[in-house]
Design brief:
Elements: H1 3-16, E1 21-28, E2 31-40, H2 45-57, E3 66-77, H3 79-87, E4 97-101, H4 105-114, H5 116-119, E5 121-123, H6 126-140
């Protein structure tokens, strides 16, 4: 079995299980935006963790201000996804801030119940998250 066949089978297995996650990394001026859609659960949380780690490790200028994790298209956020987000409340070695973008109950409610909204910066739009990152960075500079 080739690697490509294995990847296709893994993707089919995730779809069959009702779990599908898509993460797109884009640059918006000097902020990296991770647009996440689908379900963040025990099967897909490692993908989210890897995407955040990759963005944090980026040595380019596009993530100089920080990272906005856009969860507006997330339909389900399980405890494993909350754990990934909770880990971002701690300082990272790259000293890059992370702001969460969330504006609906499927994401906000679990974050409120666990207290993550008090530990992380949460904004309702990507534009507000980028503004928050730029403001915070200029205050520390």
């Amino acid at each position: 079995m080739t690697d490509k066949s294995a990847e296709q089978k893994d993707e089919r297995d995730l779809r069959t299980a009702g779990t599908l996650l898509s993460i797109e990394s884009t640059a918006l001026d000097d902020v990296t935006v991770l647009r996440v859609s689908g379900e963040v659960d025990v099967l897909t949380a490692p993908q989210l963790r890897a995407a955040i780690d990759d963005a944090l490790a980026g040595n380019d200028d596009r993530s100089a201000r920080g990272i906005a994790v856009d969860l507006q298209a997330v339909t389900f956020l399980a405890s494993s996804g909350l754990s990934v987000l909770g880990a971002e409340a701690r300082p990272n070695p790259q000293d890059r801030r992370i702001v969460i973008v969330a504006n609906h109950s499927a994401v906000l409610r679990p974050m409120q119940l666990t207290g993550l909204v008090d530990l992380l910066t949460v904004c309702p739009t990507v534009a507000e998250a980028c503004a928050e990152l730029r403001t915070a960075r200029s205050e520390t500079a």
